[in-house]
Specification:
Blueprint: E1 10-26, E2 29-43, E3 46-52, H1 62-70, H2 81-85, H3 90-108, H4 112-116, E4 128-130, H5 135-144, E5 150-154, H6 160-170, E6 174-178, H7 185-195, E7 200-204, H8 212-219, E8 226-228, E9 247-251, H9 252-255, H10 258-271, E10 274-278, H11 284-292, E11 299-301, H12 304-307, E12 313-314, E13 317-319, E14 322-324, E15 334-335
Parallel strand pairs: 4-5, 5-6, 6-7, 7-8, 8-9, 9-10, 10-11
Antiparallel strand pairs: 1-2, 2-3, 12-15, 13-14
Helix pairs in contact: 1-3, 6-7, 7-8
Length: about 350
């Protein structure tokens, strides 16, 4: 009797460049297109899609992710998720993690949100991000999207206070700000003090990461809630943030994918921290993966598909900013015919 050989897990990697609708600028720099890595995991009759959108801020790149994945042993069992992810750096782990769960969902013929036990009706409304530009151009961008119910504004210039006051004068929705580590503690207290009357939902990462006690010092001197982003890479970072901030921003590529994100959600809840689920500038593959676990968080900043001009993938959709999840198996992501 002949034995049937079990097929091995196989990965193919594709670099993806995504042109942006507008040049996207934060306090650290600008980009006119996003550079990500698409992972295709083949095993049997199914293909799982994953993506990494690595950041130089965390000493990772598309090239480093690809090298890590090419050198990583895979075996023949896509369900051996913990073993398959062991030993990979965060962005590479994220790409493989998402591809594995997309494959598992397709193999089980169930959407990812159902496998995780989440209620798709409980997805939050996502923010739409306005990057740094001249005050005139930022106000023009605001006018383009002023019907959106939640807007996040990147800060880190000398015009921060005047800009937000001008935005609040013409925008009545929820308004968030993100300094991306641009301020000193003293500058943060001064700016947020000036903006307390602007009804900000929160301020994200006002100062450079690595000094939770300075975040606590700021929090004691402002009524604007603080959310940690660069200070909250994975669940191990969270205990030091208790009492220093009001919430955290989870991004799949920072924490190593869906498993890492769920670990952070559980840890944050235990510590009494509120949770935002964010993204890099990325395709619908990675944003959709995050959207599947969004019913478990308080806020969403999953606007990657809004920022790109020519995404070859379609996935999560939006109804007045509310994330709408597909019933299709796995992530439910499809490649556009034009791609």
């Amino acid at each position: 009797m002949l034995s049937r050989k079990t097929p091995r897990v196989h990965l193919s990697l594709d670099e993806l460049r995504l042109p942006l609708v507008h040049t996207f600028t934060i306090a650290r720099g600008s980009e006119t297109d996003a550079h990500t890595l698409i992972v295709r995991l083949q095993h049997g009759e199914h293909e799982g899609l994953g993506e990494a959108a690595p950041s130089a801020r965390y000493a990772e790149s598309v090239e480093s992710v690809a090298a890590a994945l090419r050198a990583h042993p895979l075996g023949d069992d896509p369900y051996a998720v913990a073993r398959l992810l062991t030993g990979l750096p965060p962005a590479a782990r994220c790409a493989l993690d998402v591809a594995l769960y997309d494959w598992i969902g397709k193999d089980l013929d169930r959407p990812l949100w159902q496998i995780c036990g989440f209620d798709p009706a409980r997805t939050p409304v996502t923010s739409f991000t306005v990057g740094i530009d001249t005050p005139e151009r930022m106000l023009a961008k605001l006018d383009e999207i002023r019907t959106h119910p939640v807007i996040k504004v990147k800060l880190g210039t000398a015009d921060d206070v005047e800009l937000i006051r001008a935005m609040r004068a013409r925008y009545t929705g929820a308004l968030r700000v993100d300094a991306n580590e641009a301020w000193t503690p003293e500058r943060a207290v001064a700016v947020l003090g000036e903006l307390e009357r602007c009804d900000l939902e929160f301020c994200e990462q006002p100062i450079p990461a690595g000094a939770p006690e300075r975040l606590r010092w700021i929090r004691e001197r402002t009524s604007v809630p603080l959310v940690a982003d660069e200070d909250a890479r994975d669940s191990r970072d969270l205990p030091a943030l208790q009492g220093c901030v009001d919430g955290i921003n989870i991004k799949l590529v920072k924490c190593g994918g869906l498993r890492g994100a769920i670990s952070m959600i559980c840890t944050a809840r235990a510590l009494g921290l509120k949770i935002m689920l964010g993204c890099m500038v990325e395709s619908a593959v990675l944003t959709t993966a995050a959207a599947h676990i969004s019913p478990a968080v308080d806020w969403a900043d999953l606007d990657g598909p809004f920022l790109t001009a020519d995404d070859p993938f379609s996935g999560v959709t939006y109804a007045d900013g509310k994330l709408i999840l597909s019933d299709r198996p796995g992530l439910g992501v499809r490649e556009r015919a034009a791609a």
